[in-house]
Amino acid sequence: MNLYTANGMENASNDARKSGPGEPEAAPERLYEARKKIFPKRAEGRFRRFKWLVMLITLGIYYLTPWIRWDRGPYAPDQAVLIDLANRRFYFFFIEIWPQEFFYVAGLLVMAGFGLFLVTSAVGRAWCGYACPQTVWVDLFLVVERWMEGDRNARMKLDAGPWTLEKIRKRVVKHGIWLLIAVATGGAWIFYFADAPTLAYDFATGNAAFVAYSTVAVLTATTYVFGGLMREQVCIYMCPWPRIQAAMLDDNSLVVTYNDWRGEPRSKHAKKAAAAGQPVGDCVDCNACVAVCPMGIDIRDGQQLACITCALCIDACDAVMDKIGKPRGLIDYATLNEYDANMALATDNGTTSINPDRVRNADGSFTDKVRHFNWRIILRPRTLLYMAVWSAVGIGLLVALLSRDRLEVNVIHDRNPQYVLESDGSIRNGYTIRLLNMIPEPRTILLSLEGLPQASMKINGLVSDDDRTFAVSVDPDKATALKVFVTLPAAAIDQSHESFSFIAQDRSSHERDSYSATFNAPEARK
User: Fold this and answer.
1) Distance from C-alpha of 459 to C-alpha of 483, rounded to nearest angstrom
2) How far is it, in rounded angstroms, from Cα 19 to Cα 16?
3) Most buried among 92, 96, 231, 448, by the most CB within 10 A?
4) Residue-averaged pLDDT of the chain
5) Which helix (H) or strand (E) holds 177?
6) Residue 198, Cβ neighbours under 10 Å: how many?
7) Model pTM score
8) Which band of pLDDT confidence, cut at 50, 70 and 90, is reported for residue 26?
9) Which residues of 425-452 are buried (b: 16+ CB within 10 A; e: fewer)?
């Protein structure tokens, strides 16, 4: 592909339009190749069954999770997983995350990143091939397409044929089902942000918020376009991951590989070639691996950016090997070190062309020199480092989660005035105290002073008497604001430099939190 500047493209177009007298105008050179439609054939085998299982699990989690109930009592929502933006809460079964605890979410994102690094360094683009939402929804859309239009050959014939009523019917039904799936995808997403049954009723009756309808519309459009129309183009041109993954692969990473050291030279007439004394590989050039590939590539051309390592080509090739009586694994997961060693064996260290006879015994079995996959290769410094970081972050989050307090006290000192001189000579300071009850149950909190032994406290609007300890009822899952005055007698003014704290304590759960405060007085300001 040639790259031009703007002027260069204009000149190229002008040159293309120039032609001699009576000659047809030459077509301008394209800067990109037009997309070729891909009609992947249905595959059968262990990797395809694994993909079905992953698709069932991931789609089940996505569509069903908002409808799972979790009893948190009468003061909290009973939806198991809920992102409550209005009240700034995130509920995940028995876990409740407040805004100031967002580091838990950040920690989970870090774990997800290192988990992706770990999987990629061990087994290549397994995320792309099995669990990526684009892959899952494309698989789902292909199920609908095969159900309506048939398998590969039937779809190709239908696409190339004229527009008949039958073709129009099939296309309309197919795209209609795609749109229903896309709407369900967008609808399931909004249920994570509000009570699912209530929002579903409001959405159906037209009483939901505008943002709900707009979100469903956007996600419907993206799911339909990405999963139904663009498909492999999203992975090749839009997704950055194929370009990043190379940094996480090494010579011991498992990737889907065509073992040409045993497959070449390929031939559709292996028996005739063998009878003529010519070396023949196991590949019969049937193109079954190409037919099942959802990206439309030929794995026999080597590693490619478009390959998502879905391993469907392995299933297709294994089925062919079973039919012709050859051992499986012509296309298989392999490491670069393993491949290079076997290639060196088949080519006599690169001095000759591939001769599969060098890797086989007289009875057709592989020689002992052929290297095979050893699972211990996965346990190497790179993967162990990723596993260690991933585990350390996870353990840290778990310890922080189990040891966190559900009671907090925050104090703001009055700025104007900073202190008040009363008629009897005592000094009074005002504070705004917020008691944060982070459990969905009401409880009684003991608020007390620690330090300034002669000081007393008064809570405005709650009690009229002065004391050093008060029992305060706080609402569930809310912050209760109190206006508190602390008074120090005139005889104890010299103690104002001493530190003191507000103590909040729940005796029933033994939770306790404190906040260090200052007491301002004329002597303290000198």
Assistant:
1) 6
2) 8
3) 231
4) 87
5) helix 165-190
6) 12
7) 0.83
8) low
9) ebbbbbbebbbbbbbbbebebebbbeeb
